[in-house]
C-alpha cells in the first residue's frame, strides 16, 4: 500500500484529504507539526507528499526545498495560492505537481496516480544538479547515459547529496566509508575524495566538491558555464 503524507494545517481540510486517500486505497499520514516537517518526512519515507504552502512556523516552499535536498520523494503542492509566480517558484524548488484549492477529487486522485507511476522504481534515487544517483547500486545517471561508480566514490557522493547545502564533516564521511572514525588516516579520505572529484570532472557534472574550512565538505554548483 502506497503511503501519502499530508502536510496541511487546516484540520478539516487535512482530515478530508486523509479520508479521501484511504477510500482510494492509500495509507494516509497526517502531519500536524511543521517546523521540522522535512526531517519528519525523511524518516517516514512516504511515497508521495501533499504539501500546502501557507503553514504556521515555516513556509511550504522551505519544506519543499529541504525535502528535495534530502530525498527523492515526489511532492504535490495543493494550495489556495493561485499566482503564477508561486507555481513557478514551487516547481523550481522541485515540486512535481501544483494544484490550487478547491480541487475536484477526481483531478487530485488522477494527478496522484500519475506521479506515483512516474516514480515507480525510483525510491533509491537521489537527485543532484543534472543527474541521479541510485544509492543501492551507485549507478550515476547523467547526460542520457549511466556510469557505475566505485563503491567508495558512490558512498561519498551519497553522503554529500543527502547533506544538501549543509557541510558534511570528515568524520561523517569516514563513518560512511569504513564504519568508524578511529585509526583512519586523513590522507585515506583525501585520496577517495580526489578520485571522486576527478570522476565528476570527467563527467562534466554541474556540481563540484568544495571544502568548508574547519567543518567538512559540500556540493556546490560549478561557476563554469
Short summary:
Helices cover 42% and strands 24% of the residues. With 225 residues, it is of the alpha/beta class.
Structural key phrases:
5-stranded parallel β-sheet, 8 helices, 4-stranded antiparallel β-sheet
Your description of this structure?
The chain has helices at 11-23, 37-44, 60-70, 84-92, 105-118, 151-163, 170-178, 186-202; strands at residues 3-7, 27-31, 48-51, 75-79, 97-100, 125-128, 131-134, 139-142, 145-148, 168-169, 207-212, 216-221. The protein is of the alpha/beta class and 225 residues long. Helix content is 42%, strand content 24%. The chain starts with a strand and ends with a strand. It is built from eight helices and twelve strands. Helix 1 links the parallel strand 1 and strand 2. The model has no long low-confidence stretch (mean pLDDT 89). The radius of gyration is 19 Å and the shape is elongated. The strands form three sheets. Strands 2-1-3-4-5 form a five-stranded parallel beta sheet, with helices on both faces. A four-stranded antiparallel beta sheet has the order 6-7-8-9.
Q: What global shape is seen? A: elongated
Largest sheet: 5 strands, parallel
**Any idea what the radius of gyration is?**
19 Å
Low-confidence stretches are: none
| Contiguous helical run count | 8
Count of DSSP strands: 12
Distance between the termini: 44 Å
Mean pLDDT: 89
Q: H/E series, N to C?
A: EHEHEHEHEHEEEEHEHHEE
Structural class: alpha/beta
Amino acid at each position: 500500500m502506497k503511503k501519502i503524507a499530508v502536510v496541511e494545517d487546516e484540520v478539516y481540510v487535512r482530515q478530508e484529504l486523509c479520508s479521501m486517500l484511504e477510500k482510494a486505497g492509500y495509507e494516509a499520514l497526517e502531519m500536524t507539526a511543521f517546523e521540522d516537517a522535512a526531517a519528519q518526512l525523511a524518516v517516514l519515507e512516504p511515497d508521495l507528499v501533499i504539501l500546502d504552502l501557507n503553514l504556521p512556523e515555516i513556509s511550504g516552499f522551505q519544506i519543499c526545498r529541504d525535502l528535495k535536498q534530502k530525498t527523492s520523494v515526489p511532492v504535490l503542492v495543493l494550495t489556495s495560492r493561485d499566482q503564477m509566480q508561486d507555481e513557478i517558484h514551487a516547481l523550481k524548488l522541485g515540486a512535481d505537481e501544483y494544484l490550487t484549492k478547491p480541487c475536484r477529487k477526481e483531478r487530485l486522485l488522477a494527478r496522484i496516480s500519475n506521479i506515483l507511476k512516474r516514480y515507480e522504481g525510483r525510491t533509491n534515487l537521489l537527485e543532484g544538479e543534472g543527474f541521479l544517483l541510485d544509492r543501492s547500486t551507485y549507478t550515476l545517471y547523467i547526460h542520457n547515459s549511466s556510469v557505475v561508480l566505485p563503491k567508495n566514490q558512490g558512498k561519498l557522493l551519497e553522503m554529500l547529496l543527502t547533506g544538501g547545502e549543509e557541510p558534511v564533516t570528515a568524520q561523517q564521511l569516514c563513518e560512511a566509508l569504513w564504519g568508524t572514525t578511529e585509526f583512519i588516516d586523513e590522507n585515506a579520505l583525501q585520496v577517495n575524495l580526489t578520485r571522486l572529484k576527478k570522476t565528476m570532472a570527467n563527467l562534466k557534472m554541474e556540481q563540484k566538491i568544495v571544502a568548508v574550512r574547519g567543518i567538512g565538505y559540500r556540493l556546490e554548483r560549478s561557476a563554469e558555464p
